[in-house]
Specification:
The protein is about 30% helix and about 25% strand. The chain is an alpha/beta fold. It binds adenosine-5'-triphosphate and magnesium ion (MG).
Length: about 350
């Protein structure tokens, strides 16, 4: 496989959930367009952060990539040593064996661990499902991965209730990584933890990535968490990507007003920098009935007639920096007259 090929290639991914009517016949009366045409790649050993408000479609992107739910349209390619694998085309048997390459780490370490299983059995379960080896080989692997996740191997005989949130999340990580997957979706994996424990878990994920070359899709609503781990960040809003860029470029020179608003909501620790969040007014649109033109136009301080009429193209405005906004240039150079000019032009 060529070194330059990304591990994951997604093109025009759509996931639409049918809305059933209340009538006796129960026909489909519409669709929740949870993901409505997104494209991105994730390089080998890279972490792509995916952020956006609740309901923007982040989890749905992750679940579609793992084939936990079917995609409605688009292509999902996973590049392996033996060539590209079309994830959408995998049939049941092939999918089951390919699943060893992909894993999910959930948000809630309290509900995702079976309270009646020992930690050893929890971590061993995916290996047993894959017929990884003899009981002794599995025991050795469980001990090895537990050590790598900085767990006390003496604790493998205990039950999950004996552990704190951070320790439970280590168990979840060990379980997800036991079969040595290539690609891991971390869905709000540290959101339920205290800040100091969050940092420990993020460091653990980064150490493991450096050691084993894992590739992560790191989903979070909290941009400050994503800033600590992601190589690049994609910003999602009502089923679409608004912006995607290397982390430094996104945080230092955001081009989309939605990204700017999300960034402004992160409190600073420096008392000399005023904390001045941009308050977005209005409701998040219903993904079953998104507004015409730009999806963000109903809440955007820069919106004008063009935004209400034409959907902005997904275009690159700098190296590896993509944005869908008619005003990206004006926003970047800080010409705040945009709104006034826009209003005056109408
Ligand atoms: N199985 C489903 N059937 C119908 N609608 C769904 C289903 N799963 C998700 N949705 C809808 O799709 C949209 C996107 O949901 P999703 O869970 O992907 O958002 P999210 O960005 O992960 O949000 P959060 O930050 O709250 O986790 C929401 O409007 C949600 O209600
Ligand atoms: Mg989610």
């Amino acid at each position: 496989m060529s070194e330059t090929k990304p591990l994951i290639e997604v093109d025009n991914l759509k996931v639409h959930f049918p809305i059933r009517g209340n009538s006796f016949l129960g026909g489909t009366v519409g669709h929740v367009k949870a993901v409505d045409g997104v494209g991105f790649t994730i390089g080998q050993g890279e972490t792509l952060g995916l952020v956006g408000e609740s309901g923007s479609g982040k989890t749905t992107v992750g679940r579609a990539l793992l084939r936990a739910i079917p995609a409605t349209d688009g292509s999902l390619i996973f590049n392996t040593e033996d060539g590209p694998v079309d994830l959408r085309a995998l049939k049941t048997g092939a999918l089951r064996s390919f699943r060893r390459n992909m894993q999910l780490i959930f948000q809630d370490p309290y509900s995702s661990l079976n309270p009646r299983m020992t930690v050893r059995d929890i971590i061993a379960e995916p290996l047993e499902c894959l017929n990884w080896g003899t009981r002794e080989e599995i025991d050795n692997r469980v001990r090895e991965i537990a050590r790598r996740c900085k767990m006390n191997v003496e604790h493998l005989r205990r039950f999950p209730h004996a552990f704190s949130g951070g320790q439970r999340q280590r168990i979840c990580i060990a379980r997800a990584l036991a079969a040595n997957p290539r690609f891991i979706v971390c869905d709000e994996s540290v959101s339920a933890l205290d800040v100091s424990i969050q940092a420990e878990i993020l460091n653990l994920l980064m150490d493991l990535q450096e050691e084993f070359g894992f590739t992560y899709l790191f989903i979070a609503h909290d941009l400050s968490v994503v800033a600590q781990i992601a190589t690049r960040v994609a910003v999602m809003y009502v089923g679409k990507f608004m912006e995607m860029a290397p982390s430094a470029a996104l945080f230092e020179t955001p081009r989309h007003p939605y990204t700017k608003a999300l960034l402004s909501a992160i409190p600073t620790v420096d008392p000399d920098i005023p904390f001045d969040p941009i308050h977005l007014t209005g409701e998040i649109p219903n993904p079953a009935d998104p507004p015409p033109g730009c999806r963000f136009q109903t809440r955007c301080p820069y919106a004008n007639a063009q935004c209400r009429g034409d959907e902005p193209l997904w275009r690159d405005v700098a190296r590896d920096h993509w944005v869908a906004c008619h005003h990206a240039e004006a926003i970047a150079d800080g010409s705040h007259g945009v709104q006034d000019q826009a209003v005056a032009a109408e």
